[in-house]
Amino acid sequence: EWLSEHTTTVFQDSFVLDYNVDSQPPEVLLALSVSYNMEDDADEEGNAIVLNLAPMVLKAEQLRTNNHEYMDKLITMTPQFRLLRMVESHLNNGDLSNIDALLGCPIYTPELTIYDKFESLSQAEQHSSISCLFYSINWFRELINAFVTQKDPELKKKVFGRLRQMIGLQKILCRVAPLSPSYIPVLAVFDLDASQSLPAPGAVVAGSKKTAGKKGRKKGATGKGKV
To answer: What local confidence, expressed as pLDDT, does residue 208 receive?
Structure first.
């Protein structure tokens, strides 16, 4: 239980903000909005939570384009969420109801109208808005993978909703990405599942037979000995 409380606290402190219906989005490079909300459980004062995605992405993009060392906690969001849901699943026999608020909570994203006028944006704005699409799509994919096993009908409905939203964002990405050929996606090595990765060059795959070649003489060597 201590591990569950600790991982939950770390994730919330790093990536989740308290949100009020009267709150204004942070003032950053792009106009932001609170998007993709599936929750109706705000308290009497209208307080809820929101994933602080776009502001973190924009900060990371600024560090990257200014040639600073790209060390941002955004990189750890996916691994931390995976750890959190694995701990919860292990402690509660697969039940994720303790963290299901993350499935339905809104996220900070650029306003969708930005992508309608994408060609008029500056290069920095184009790159940042595309990165927001990448991270939003990946976040929805993580949510789908985490909660697809849940039996609760309401959670199933939200999973299908996230799937529709992810497909919609992928369509936007396919439309705007070719308009910014200078954009270079951020590295995603941290998101690699090593168990499904290809073997390294020269590695011997289990069950395969190694073919022995004939041993030749060392170039320039004399005598009948084999090297």
So the answer is: 43
